[in-house]
Design a protein that fits this description.
heterodimer; A: 293 residues; alpha/beta; Rossmann fold; eight-stranded mixed beta sheet; globular; B: 388 residues; 2 domains; five-stranded mixed beta sheet; 18 strands; 23% strand
């Protein structure tokens, strides 16, 4: 064995402390953007210096749903669409936790759409990282609530004719207090957004546009992962504070990215404590600060 | 199994005039339940209302979720956050909860769900009684698993069995159901709530060993793994996929075999410890009436009438419905002439009786499709037929 090889064997993944190395290699396809978003998340955790014992990750089902299985934190792989209500229970049971929901567009806004809007309405104190790859990838590339008009999918073989959700618009309209969108190649910006979300209270939503190289890209003949990653990046235009009504995504069209919403509003728990404390006076047991076990 | 005394804050000691739905809430609060997530549905809504009023004064959270899918998901999350949790529902909501009941089973999450049953299928009879979800309670979620289900026959027992349900659910780390019905849920009776120090609770099976040796699904010597909660520094993983002791997914037949056997056998092997029955005049009985919930109270009249007419009738009330009292019924099948099984459905638990009797005695089903309780005469006629 040469010296060089020995050195390489000792090389460690820079994110080792944050990943379950005993579960690597992961299941994601070469060229998929999910790993990149996980890297940004790990960087954000490091930079924000949060207590890692107090961070929990909840995922639903799907490709991005597997994130919970790879991060070395208290991590929960739940059922399809139910990551947000699971996270809601977790957060309310132990308010000192920073609860991050890491899942895909189909999981969060298709099957889980109802929970998404209600958690935003309540301003539930959650960080939502939504990897949007425009299709249901784990099951083989079916049409989703986010598939752009005319794009081809395995259950839209003649092209999609349904309108798609614009996720930042949906999030803001439902009551989210932090809304951002980036592409997976905006590594530093994604990291910064996650850092900001970790540092604030309330329903924070971060959408990351990511290539699905094996299904969406191949079916629509959009080239390999790296090309598509670059394509999305090149097609993006940063417009902070853009009106979220203007953020529709057309097939291979311009992607408006940026931080669109950042505002203060009482979270569910703050509103509960404030309101019940006022109405019930001394009879109210302040929750989440004095009695937390 | 570590025993605890109830926290007096949640215990409304004294004699009260309560309906079954309220008594469920009081039992849960006495058992230390401090998280309730639910969705309104007749005839169970009063339990949620009671929680929403009481829980802010005892240090807990009530949240009305957007649907039953969310309610059960929030419950499971709250358990992993360290709380004792409960929700209440009826048929349509119970149907919506089924998928995540499977998640709770595979993640071995202790929680309590009360189903105040009404007539079905579908929207059916929202305001009228039924016992038609008994098989759904056992088999409703996909895959192989076991749960525990109890059936109270009075508001007092709603209170008592709510505590029992929490204790069983913590002991075996399994979803536990209280399968009551509209009649018991809306019936007002005297409910005596004992002093807190007389209420014995089972503490969650917390792990206390070295942090780096913790394996979330390594069975303890009693067959039940230890638990930790999020935020305690274990950085553990749990999934709805078939998993190994580490909680990591393993997708093959060997791991599936270990997992499924464990989920099923941790309940089946402890059935004797779990099952509670109320038996009456069984020793010389030729006919045994098996019933549960409100139907057992209706059966009393038929049994009295039959005894007056000289028939030798015993009764078994299933306080524990699942796991089914298989051993006891097999014993009795060798001794008695017949079993009569009235229930407010078209014949559900009677199938279990038939399975255990194995043709050694007659089994007579007395079905009722829901909407009201049996006419005691119908049960009497069946006893008469059985005595022949």
């Amino acid at each position: 064995m040469s010296l060089n090889e020995e050195d390489r064997l000792e090389e460690k993944n820079p994110l080792e402390g944050l990943l379950r190395m005993d579960r690597i290699p992961h299941i994601w396809c070469p060229g998929c953007g999910i790993g990149t978003v996980v890297t940004s998340f790990a960087e954000a955790l490091k930079k924000s210096e949060v207590d890692l014992d107090k961070v929990a990750v909840v995922s639903g089902i799907g490709c991005t749903g597997r994130v919970a299985g790879y991060v070395k934190l208290d991590s929960f792989h739940t059922t399809h669409g139910r990551a947000i209500p699971f996270a809601t229970g977790l957060k309310l049971a132990n308010p000192e936790l920073k609860v991050v929901v890491f899942s895909g567009d189909g999981d969060l806004t298709g099957i889980g759409g109802n929970h998404f809007i209600h958690a935003a309405r309540r301003n539930m104190d959650l960080v939502i990282i939504c990897v949007n790859n425009f299709n249901y990838a784990m099951t083989g590339g079916q049409v989703a609530s986010t598939t752009p008009l005319t794009a081809n999918a395995s259950t839209a073989p003649y092209g999609n004719f349904e309108g798609a959700f614009s996720l930042p618009y949906l999030a803001e309209a439902s009551g989210a207090t932090y809304v951002a969108r980036w592409t997976a190649l905006h590594l530093r910006r994604v990291t910064k957004s996650i850092q900001e979300a970790l540092g604030r209270k309330g329903f924070s939503f971060i959408e990351v546009i990511t290539p699905c190289v094996t299904l969406y890209a191949r079916r629509n003949r959009l080239g390999d992962g790296l090309n598509l990653l670059k394509y999305y990046y090149d097609k993006s235009e940063i417009q902070h504070n853009a009106d979220t009504r203007t953020l529709d995504i057309s097939y291979q069209g311009k992607l408006i990215v940026g931080k669109f919403v950042e505002k203060e509003r009482p979270t569910f728990l703050d509103a509960m404590n404030e309101h019940l404390g006022r109405v019930l006076g001394d009879d109210y047991q302040l929750y989440g600060r004095i009695n937390n076990d | 199994m570590k025993k605890l005394k109830a926290d007096p804050k949640g215990v409304l000691t004294g004699a009260h005039y309560l309906d079954g739905d309220y008594a469920l809430a009081e039992g849960a609060l006495a058992a230390g339940c401090r998280f309730f997530a639910g969705y309104p549905i007749t005839p169970s809504t009063e339990t949620a209302e009671r929680f929403s009023e009481r829980i802010p004064t005892v240090g807990g959270v009530f949240i009305q979720m957007e649907d039953e899918l969310a309610s059960i998901a929030a419950l499971i999350g709250a358990v992993w956050g360290g709380k004792k949790v409960m929700t209440v529902t009826s048929g349509p909501g119970f149907s919506l909860m089924m998928e995540n009941i499977g998640l709770a089973c595979i993640q071995e999450t202790p929680l309590v769900i009360a189903n105040v049953q009404r007539g079905g299928p579908s929207t059916g009879l929202p305001t009228l009684t039924g016992q038609q979800d008994m098989m759904q309670a056992k088999w409703g979620s996909h895959g192989d698993y076991e749960i525990i289900a109890l059936s109270p026959d009075s508001p007092q027992e709603c209170f008592d069995l709510a505590i029992e349900a929490f204790n069983l659910s913590e002991t075996y780390r399994v979803p536990t159901f209280i399968m009551t019905d509209e009649c018991v849920g809306h019936m007002h009776e005297k409910v005596v709530i004992p002093p807190a120090e007389e209420i014995e609770l089972v503490e969650r099976k917390w792990y206390t060993g070295p942090k780096d040796e913790f394996l979330p699904y390594k069975n303890d010597k009693d067959g039940i793994p230890f638990m930790v909660k999020a935020g305690d520094g274990y950085h553990f993983h749990t999934t709805g996929l078939t998993h190994d002791e580490r909680g990591y997914p393993v997708i093959n037949a060997e791991c599936q075999d270990v997992q499924v056997r464990h989920l099923v056998e941790k309940i089946r092997n402890n059935a004797d410890k779990i099952i509670k029955l109320e038996e009456n005049e069984i020793d010389n009985a030729e006919v045994v009436v098996i019933s549960y919930g409100i139907t057992s109270r209706v059966a009393v009249r038929a049994v009295q009438q039959a005894r007056k007419a000289g028939m030798k009738v015993g009764t078994i009330r299933l306080i524990t419905v699942w796991p089914f009292a298989e051993k006891r019924i097999r014993e009795l099948a060798k001794k008695v002439k017949a079993f009569v099984v009235p229930e407010i459905n078209y014949g559900q638990m009677v199938r279990e009786v038939e399975r255990c009797v194995e043709g050694q005695a007659k089994v007579i089903s007395v079905p009722h499709c829901g909407g009201w309780v049996h006419d005691p005469n119908d049960i009497f006629k069946a006893i008469k037929e059985a005595s022949k």
